[in-house]
Amino acid sequence: MPAGATVTVSGIGFQPGASVEIDDVELASIRYVGPNQLEVVLADGTEMHGRQVRVSNRDRSGAIYYSYLRAAVLGESRVPLLAATFPIFSTQTFTQSFFFPVLDRHLFLGLAFQNPGSRRALITIELFSAARQRISSSRFTLPTQTTISREVSEYLSDFKPRLGDYLRVRSNVPVQVIGLVGNETEGTVVPVDPS
Q: What pTM was estimated for this model as a whole?
């Protein structure tokens, strides 16, 4: 967001005179709009993704929120549990990361990507054997300000991992990435950081 930009803070229970603090961001002004909205003007340009926003009322009530990029979603996974999952990305970006496929028949591995940058990302996913031989690979383009989540076989159609196999993910520009281990039986999805 550029200097002078207005940021709307939405919520409930805001009171006249409420204060707003955004980590490491100088604010030019704060305006009470109503009990569900405050507006702040940024004194300097800043990256808002991952910033902690604190609102405090004079009666000491308040709330803390972490801002995040609301990227456009590219389609939907064919796996219902993954399609119903909303991945939350770290602010850290990668140009290369590794994942180790799960081999339990009740589990699946999904990969989610988000491109917070200003350039399109060319992402390559490769499956390697334990002996470091490439088994298969695929590429796709991730436009700026977009996100995608898919089960690995939706990226690699011939995905049949064996013990010791691993995935290498590369991108020509830094992107956010997270693994998602889903359990269809239990209806759960657990995030997995890239290594």
A: 0.78
